[in-house]
Amino acid sequence: MRKILVSGILFIIGMTTLQAQINFEEGTLEEVKQKAQATNKPIYLDAYTTWCGPCKWMDKEVFTDTTVGNYYNTHFVNYKLDMEKGEGIELRKQYGINTFPTMLYLQADGTLMYKAIGAREPASFIALGETALNPDNHLGALQKRYEAGERAPTFLKQYAKALINADEIAKATEIAAMYLSKQPNEALIKEEHFMLLAAAYTKLPEDKQGYVVQNKSGFAQNVGEEKAASFFDYVLTEKMEKAIRANNEAARTNLQGWFKKYLPEKEVAMMAYYDYLSHKGTDKAYHYAKIYFGQHCEDAEQLNSIAWEYYDKVEDTEKLEKAVEWGLKSVSFDEAHYNLDTVAHLYYKLGKYEQAQKAAQSAIRIGKENNRDVKGTEALLEKIEEKE
Fold first, then answer.
1. Taking a C-beta distance cutoff of 8 angstroms, is the pair 56, 50 a contact?
2. CB–CB of 124/149 below 8 Å?
3. In 133-166, which positions are buried (b, 16+ CB within 10 angstroms) versus exposed (e)?
4. CA–CA separation, 22 and 67 (whole Å)
5. What are the extents of the domains in the chain?
């Protein structure tokens, strides 16, 4: 009897575990639609690919969560579909899926209710489901309200966020810019507006763009240092690329004026970087590279990248020696396998085998300590030792 009781308890526990995760339906989407219609539930469709890391993380950490499973099994008929196989290929086109994972929330007949991209923590994923179930949040409903002329700030904010979640970036940028342009400058750097600002910054009037940059410390305090740093990297890249695309003196003058007005502390360094980028592939590239990478650049990965580029493409001894300097400068900011490996390769190419050996050995040691693939460096070390 005791064995039977224990077996029964284990069976119940097993059943509870099964029910605790999201139950994804088998079969075709048409069969899933039929079940949704029969149960009077909408469909949650997980659009994934086999190579998508965040998709695998969702599988392991989110879809197996008890609270998530209970919520989604109660409110949706759930379905997973590989967007690179079978009917997933056509559905990817139908729903405009470009990012993975994409979460589709569909009515029982397949009509899109809500769409969102990117992995979510369990609580955020449940909140997403709640948002999708609210008819007021459906993209189709929001679009009709916009087309009918509704322009209230709260509505524009809601519509812009829904478009961003759906990866409808072009339209989202337009709506977010419309909303933010009506907000006071001090409101732009609030955390609640970060998503909209990231989408629409380049479309805002110059005074609003400048306010955000000039108040970067307050912005970082509100949204977090990491998010703020990524945002400002994006801002500078956009400014730089726009000027480089124009590729004329007027564009350079405008760019320098912008830095002088809004980021005077970065003017000299950023203009040196502009001069380097705008002369890449010309006879003057090395001249401007020496100025920027030698005097101004403090980004370890950027320094390593130019050092490796010279190793890979340059034969001139003077330029290779300069690349070693850039590689060592990278190491001074971030001693790691990747840049020590570059330095070792450069020394080897210059015939400086003793220095190459030391750099390679350090690269291998640090790489192993940090679980990096050091096979390439080990192969280089063998070649170096053959030369000695």
1. no
2. no
3. eeeebbbeebeebbeeeeeeeebbbbbbbbbbbb
4. 9
5. 2-121, 134-223
* Model pLDDT, residue 18: 44
Sign of CA dihedral 204, 209, 210, 215: positive
The owner of tokens 């139908």 is 94
β-pairing, 43-48 with 24-25? unpaired
Q: What is the pLDDT of residues 184-195, one digit of tens each?
A: 999 999 999 999
Query: Which pLDDT tens digit goes with each residue over 81-124?
Result: 999 999 999 999 999 999 999 999 999 999 999 999 999 999 99
List the structure tokens of 173.
Answer: 């940028």
Look at residues 141, 190, 184 and name the one whose alpha carbon lies nearest to residue 162.
141
Measuring CA to CA, how many Å separate 270 from each of 212, 237, 256, 262, 290?
A: 18, 10, 8, 12, 14
The tokens describing 366, both together, are: 């640090």
The pTM is what?
0.69
Flag whether pLDDT at 182 surpasses 50: yes
For domain 2-121, give the CATH number.
3.40.30.10
Q: CA 165 to CA 199: how far, in whole Å?
A: 11
Residues ≥6 apart with Cβ < 8 Å to 200: 160, 172, 173, 174, 176, 177, 180
What does the radius of gyration of the chain's CA atoms come to, in whole angstroms? 27
**pLDDT confidence band for 167 (50 / 70 / 90):** confident
